[in-house]
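Trying the structure run again after the queue cleared.
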Amino acid sequence: MNRPRGVPGSRAGWLVAGLALAVAIVAVVLNAVNPGGPVPRSRPVPPRARVPSHARVPSHARVPSRVGVPAHVRVPSHASAMGVVEFDSTAADARDPVLAAAELHFYWSQIEPRPGVFEWQRVDGAMRPWVAAGKQVVLRISAAGDESWSYRAGHATPGWVYAAGVPHVTTSNGSVLPVYWDPPFERAWGGFIATMARHYDGDPHIAYVEAGIGEGGETLAETETSDPERAQRWLAPDVKPVPWSVGTWAGYVETIAGDYVRDWHRTPVAVMVDSTFFGGDHAALVSLERWLIDHGVRQFQTNGLTPDLVLMSPWRKVTVSAEERNCSCTSGASLGATLARARAVHARWVLVYAGDVDQRDFSRVLAKVQP
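Done. C-alpha cells:
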C-alpha cells in the first residue's frame, strides 16, 4: 500500500511524530516568555550601564589634545557664558565673583635677568592670590614693549642678549626693541619659550598662554603700524641683518608661533593676531592666519575689541579671545556694546580693563549680554 510521503507507517513512527510535535509546542511557549531566545549560562549578559547626566560631554566641548585643557579645568564653551578676564589686573579684585581669571603680563628681562637665571617666583607670586580665590590666570611674557607703558616694558629683552651681539632699534621715546628676525635672537627667545613651557605647561591654574611674538606679544614689530616714522626705522638699509619686509616678518612670526606649538602640549596658546604688517597688507595677513591654523595654532586673540570689531574669515576656525582696545572708562565707548560685540564674535574669553570691572554697574551690564 502506498502511503502519502511523511506519514509514519508504524506505532514507533507515530510516537516519534508526537514527540517532535511536543518539542515544537514547548519551543513556541518558551519563545513567548523570552523573545530574545535562550541565553547560554556561560555568557551572562550584564545589565546596561547608565551614564550619569553630569558626566556626559557634548561633542562641541572637546578640545584638540595638541593645545588641550586639562579635564578638571572648567572653560566656558561657545554656548555658555564668556570667561571674564581682568586685564591690567590688581590682586584686590581676585575675590570678585564676576571674574574667571586675571591676565598677568611680564617681560623677558624680569624673568631671566642673567643667562640661565630664572626668577619664576615673580610669576608665582602674582598668581597666588588668584589661585587662592579659585580663579585662573592668563599668562603673557613678552620680549618687546613700549617705554610709555613702563620702563621695564621699554627694555623687555634682557641687556645680556644685546651684549651678545643681537642688533636692536631704538624708538623716539627710548624703547629698545630687538631686530626680531636676527637668528641669534630667534634662538635665544625660542630657548626661553621652551624653558617657560617646561615650568608651566599643564598648570591647571593657567587658562591659556598668550604667545609673545612682537611688541607687547602681538604679531607686529611696533604697535603703531600706521605711523610712517615707526615703519621707516625698520625699513632703513642699516637695519641688520636685513631691513624689515613682509616676507621677513611673516617668517619670524611663523618661527615663534611654531616654537609655542612645539613646546606647549597641554596648556592652550593664543596668538595675538593684529594688523601685523606696516602699511597694512590684507592678503598677507589672511595668508599668515591660514598658515598659523594649518600648523597647529588653535586660538587667536584680538587686542582691539570695540563695538564695531570685525574679524576675518579664518577666525571662524579657532577659539577666540578678545581684549578691550581701551578702557571704556576713558575712551567713552559703550561698555555694553563692547561686551555684546565680544559675544557676537563667539569670544570664549573677554579681557576687560580693571577700570571697567570696577564700575558699579559692570555686573548688570555683563548680565545683559551673557546667555
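The chain has 13 helices and ten strands. Worth checking whether this holds up in the mutant runs.
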